[in-house]
Design a protein that fits this description.
Distance between the termini: 55 Å
Shape: globular
Structural class: mainly alpha
Number of strands: 12
Helix content: 40-55%
Length: 445
């Protein structure tokens, strides 16, 4: 292990969690909304679609960013941000110029390249590793199937192709381990509406184990991760976050956990499955559907969801698509909803999933009324299915508030935005820039 380990945050300790390996434990009481700790990114990469609207260095969202004078593809708040990011950006700057439009490494490859560079330039333990060092990350190498190994080899090929002039690589076996570690321990940074901003490594945050009944939530202030309590935490209690979207029923959540993180969850909600009946609510008909019909429809719904997921997220496709393709995607959503609606209630999570996709398409094509219609159907079931202080619920209230304002329904807009703020003040902290921006929106209207 590298030398120079920083002291652990006050009130918290790393410990051996029974059946889970390493974990994080509270040494004192934490109230709802209280900040447990913050963690600067070990390294981070802004997603390509946000270039020009966010600073490549600090991820701040602002107008009038300055371009890198050489590649013209990286943007910064000021000279200070540019200088601070240069050790990472120099890995890509000349390559962007050389490859031109053919410069297209995956975000995973870009992040891993930055880890390799950081390990070389900062061999000592960093302020992001007070509790857990990057080299301690789990790789679950023995659990990787052939498909996952092939994807890693593709990433390794991309790393060599785009970064060979600026990086010295370890051998292939070491790169397989590193990519496997990144896959299990990387984080997605999102904005207040849960739009993807980039990827990052937050070692200390990665120490926390998963629960479908989490007692903390992770939010981001630029490239700083902040961990706040969403339940009261007593001394000696383990600190749990959620690795996945908690909307779905127990079987789906554990499928996702096994696929991405190689374990099953044994939290109270997964053992009791007490929320599954509401999440899978069936339409009340005079002639109720048979058990077989319900099973077939659940299978259909899961297949539809997987198709969207495997399309590299439909939002990514939309960013590169023309309006006709967006309309085609909306038609797919509507046909799926019609088919599932014969069996499922609108509050069924599979219906909500497709409504959310449809809402996203409507927002893309600027069909504000259509987006509002879907959002209005989504918000109440979301509030019921998700835990308290959910970012998914807050972002939906925020989208609804902005849609109401755009459609000149100020009364409904103010109410929705205030609901978003009430959740975000706990999850993000009252001084977060996003909350200041939303309050300014209220003042301006």
């Amino acid at each position: 292990m590298r030398s120079g380990a920083a002291p652990q945050p006050d009130g918290l300790e790393r410990f051996a969690s029974a059946g889970k390996g390493r974990g994080l434990r509270a040494r004192r009481r934490y109230a709802v909304g209280e900040l447990l700790f913050s963690c600067p990114a070990y390294t981070a990469v802004l997603t390509a679609s946000e270039r020009g609207s966010h600073c490549d260095g600090c991820f701040a969202r602002k107008e009038g960013l300055s371009k890198c004078g050489r590649c013209k593809q990286a943007f910064y708040c000021n000279v200070e941000c540019q200088k601070e990011d240069w050790p990472m950006h120099k890995l890509e700057c000349s390559a962007m110029c050389a490859f031109g439009q053919n410069w297209n490494p995956s975000e995973n490859v870009r992040l891993t390249a930055r880890i390799l560079a950081k390990q070389k330039t900062h061999p000592e333990r960093t302020q992001s590793e007070k509790l857990l060092a990057v080299e301690e990350f789990e790789s679950h190498l023995d659990k990787l199937d052939n498909e996952k190994r092939e994807l890693i080899q593709n990433d390794i090929a991309g790393l060599h192709h785009f970064y060979s002039k600026h990086l010295e690589f370890p051998d292939n076996a070491a790169l397989v381990v590193l990519f496997a570690q990144v896959n299990c321990n990387g984080f997605t940074i999102e904005d207040e509406e849960l739009s993807h901003l980039g990827s990052a490594i937050f070692p200390d945050v990665a120490l926390m184990n998963h629960s479908c009944c989490p007692n903390v939530i992770v939010t981001y202030k630029g490239t700083l991760a902040e961990v706040r309590a969403v339940k009261e935490i007593e001394p000696g209690e383990e600190v749990f976050t959620s690795y996945i979207d908690l909307l779905y029923p127990t079987e789906d959540r554990n499928d996702r956990l096994r696929d991405a993180y190689f374990f099953n969850c044994d939290c109270r909600e997964c053992i009791t499955k007490e929320k599954d009946k509401e999440k899978l609510e069936i339409r009340k008909l005079s002639d109720p559907p048979s058990a077989e019909t319900v099973r077939d429809m659940i299978k259909y719904a899961r297949n539809v969801i997987e198709e969207f997921r495997r399309a590299k997220h439909y939002k990514y496709i939309l960013c590169h698509a023309l309006t006709p393709l967006a309309c085609e995607l909306l038609e797919i959503c509507e046909l799926s909803l019609d088919k599932m609606g014969a069996v499922f209630e609108d509050s069924n999570v599979y219906m909500l999933h497709m409504m959310y996709q449809a809402m996203g398409v409507c927002l893309y094509v600027q069909d504000w009324e259509g987006a509002l219609c879907y959002g209005q159907k989504i918000i109440r079931p979301y509030s019921k299915h998700y835990p308290s202080y959910s970012l998914n619920v807050a972002s939906m209230w925020l989208k609804l508030g902005r849609l109401y304002m755009a459609l000149e329904n100020r009364t409904a807009g103010v109410k929705a935005l205030k609901r978003a703020i009430a959740i975000m003040e706990v999850a993000h902290g009252k001084d977060h820039p996003y909350i200041s921006e939303i309050k300014k929106e209220l003042e301006d209207h």
